[in-house]
């Protein structure tokens, strides 16, 4: 009560009765009321929740929907409607988890996405709640298998992402190892050099100062050599980690699904002539028919017409219908 | 392909009797519908009889051919053939009292030009028509859809011209006839005269073509009988009588053609002016009234403002003067 009273000064809408929402309070985390299968979306500050839901359950002071204390969550978004929608969406998408490849065509997938939006909108705005819930139940019943399968199956995108992360990890490991080895080598070498210097100083009869400078120079030279050492690795990937010289990952290209329809069945054209049989196409030229028709011009030839075609057509039309006899004729002239 | 065409299926008839039936039926249908217009007079006096209709149409077929022959730019043969087909088909389903043949004639040629890809604009087209060109334009364009509808939208016509070429190629290749090209003038004149007969409604284009070739051969004192029996029908002798019969019928049809008597036709035309369907007469008040209503219905504008050519030139009755 004390807290609530305090807040009265801060918030105009908090009129002292516990449970009346204080929308703009930023200091005290607010919670959002959530009932089973239904979120009324009204906010309460945490202290009000403590007060009102001492027993663990009670009615929402705003709309009298029975609520449980456990179901209160800390509000993430400033607008409770957004919060409510995000929550509903999360719940709906748990079941509506079909993906594009589950549908035969893009159009069907789009219809499905639209249906989800309809449901979310209805639940958010309290339109036809009962019917919508029935719809969800029906969907769950009808698609139990698909839902179950999709839940267990990691999304393809996630899978690809995981693979990439895995690869990165391996590479990092390799790099770390390499560095370690290099460092070890370096240390060993330094120790060897030191040992050599001491031995030199001990056993050779040269001037100590000269030996020291000699060794210093040698070390300097070696260091310079080392700097040039790490040979550039052959580039076989872009900076983003995508390999090149390798064809695009086939899993990234969705196999286009064709619309199911009756297949085309080729039926060869059976010329129906009702007349003497035509000379076969091959004989148009060989038997000299072609000599009696104008040769095609280059323009006509470019259009795909040859004099053999024209010749064949003229012969065909001459022979067609020669056997026709008017036995029945047409019944009516329409 | 002719054997699977609409021309064979719907527009090739069994015999002349069948054609006659259609024509008589159209005639009596029209008279029945307009009986009260006779005002008690003898129906045969007021309306055209079926025989008179035939005579009238025969005269207009001559006009049709002359119109095509004089057409500028000169039109290909197939346009003429197609126009004749349309004209004959149209009057199987309609009476010339309902639609005046001079209007349908021009419309047939216009549609045939389009279908046979002989490209003339409507302005070029009406330049060939004597009389009021605006009015002719209106008549042709307003009848175009009517004609196509009456043809049941079957616009492809199989003319005998390509079969003729086929026969000539075949004759040149397989028979030993000397210079078959000298047959051509006779073939052309034979085909021209088939236009005046009903051959194209009764026989296939290849039969008409063969009849023309055989006729031309006999004119040139050549005999192609052996070509037909020994080369064409060598594998189907049993079909030969049917073909001989068809060729004989076509030749008789052409031979028996008689030009209609000019005086008689003039009398018929006078009669037609009285008994024709005034709703389809562009000079009649009824037609103008109907058109005016049509325009105002469509454009929703007051009747006084409806201005169109036909109303403007109502005094000129000489439009579509193709016959002179």
TrEMBL record, chain A:
Keyword entries, A-Z: Cell cycle, Coiled coil, Metal-binding, Nucleus, Transcription, Transcription regulation, Zinc, Zinc-finger
Molecular function as annotated in GO: cyclin-dependent protein serine/threonine kinase activator activity; zinc ion binding
Ranges where the MAT1 centre domain occurs: 67-268
Sequence segments annotated as region (Disordered): 1-25, 218-240
Composition bias, Basic residues: 1-11
Complex and partners: Associates with CDK7 and cyclin H.
PANTHER family in the record: CDK-ACTIVATING KINASE ASSEMBLY FACTOR MAT1 (PTHR12683:SF13)
Protein known as: CDK-activating kinase assembly factor MAT1
Gene name of the record: Dsim\GD25961
UniProtKB/TrEMBL annotation, chain B:
Pfam families xrefs: Cyclin_C_2, Cyclin_N
InterPro entries in alphabetical order: Cyclin-like_dom, Cyclin-like_sf, Cyclin/Ssn8, Cyclin_C_2, Cyclin_N, CyclinH/Ccl1
Domain of life (superkingdom): Eukaryota
Gene Ontology MF: a single term: cyclin-dependent protein serine/threonine kinase regulator activity
Domain Cyclin-like per the UniProt entry, residue ranges: 62-147
Single biological process term from Gene Ontology: regulation of transcription by RNA polymerase II
Any one GO cellular component localisation term in the record: transcription factor TFIIK complex
Keywords annotated in UniProt: Cell cycle, Cyclin, Transferase
Cell cycle keyword on record: yes
CDD domains linked to this entry: CYCLIN_CCNH_rpt1, CYCLIN_CCNH_rpt2
Subunit structure and binding partners: Associates primarily with CDK7 and MAT1 to form the CAK complex. CAK can further associate with the core-TFIIH to form the TFIIH basal transcription factor.
Family affiliation: Belongs to the cyclin family. Cyclin C subfamily.
Function as written in the Swiss-Prot or TrEMBL entry: Regulates CDK7, the catalytic subunit of the CDK-activating kinase (CAK) enzymatic complex. CAK activates the cyclin-associated kinases CDK1, CDK2, CDK4 and CDK6 by threonine phosphorylation. CAK complexed to the core-TFIIH basal transcription factor activates RNA polymerase II by serine phosphorylation of the repetitive C-terminal domain (CTD) of its large subunit (POLR2A), allowing its escape from the promoter and elongation of the transcripts. Involved in cell cycle control and in RNA transcription by RNA polymerase II. Its expression and activity are constant throughout the cell cycle.
Protein name: Cyclin-H
The species this protein was found in: Drosophila simulans (Fruit fly)
